[in-house]
């Protein structure tokens, strides 16, 4: 099982060591206490409290990410900086289950979510086309597959979601195949739910965000 986790910053904590009995009695024990600051919004700067950068892998603007794995948002209104995604993929006995959990996305809206062939990059198009188990022979890099015989949720990984009032969402899919090694490298969030008709199959609007995922 390959697990990729991205975490949303909710706040920060400070550990304060309080020495009890700091008078003439040296035998008094030391007491350790933990004091938590109230959760702070990622978009709010509190006087005297530094705003910490997102943890490794959190959605960042292109050029501002940290670590070896990319997690980029190309639309901060739909996928805010610091929003979180958790992707789990498990392949066994010729079948694969992929689960998608999101927190902190734009509330009450649809997203198309697909596995893509290439890693994320500064440009939305860097992640390449959808991963397909049976590759459409008519597809090209300039014209990705839109044939329902190939662009469908049985031949690709589709994890379309609708977020709740808090921007949270979950989806899971199981397909009757396993990923080929090294050929699926990211998950992309799109602007709308995935279409299925001829000439439009697999299309889901603009690419809003991308996260590297080693399937």
UniProtKB/TrEMBL annotation:
It comes from the Bacteria. InterPro entries: SOD-like_Cu/Zn_dom_sf, SOD_Cu_Zn_dom, TAT_signal. Residues 42-53 have a biased composition (Low complexity). One of its GO terms (biological process) is superoxide metabolic process. Residues 25-35 have a biased composition (Polar residues). Residues 84-210 form the Superoxide dismutase copper/zinc binding domain. SUPFAM superfamilies: Cu,Zn superoxide dismutase-like. Residues 25-53, 109-152 are annotated as: Disordered. One of its GO terms (molecular function) is metal ion binding. Belongs to the Cu-Zn superoxide dismutase family. This is Superoxide dismutase, Cu-Zn family. It comes from Rhodococcus jostii.
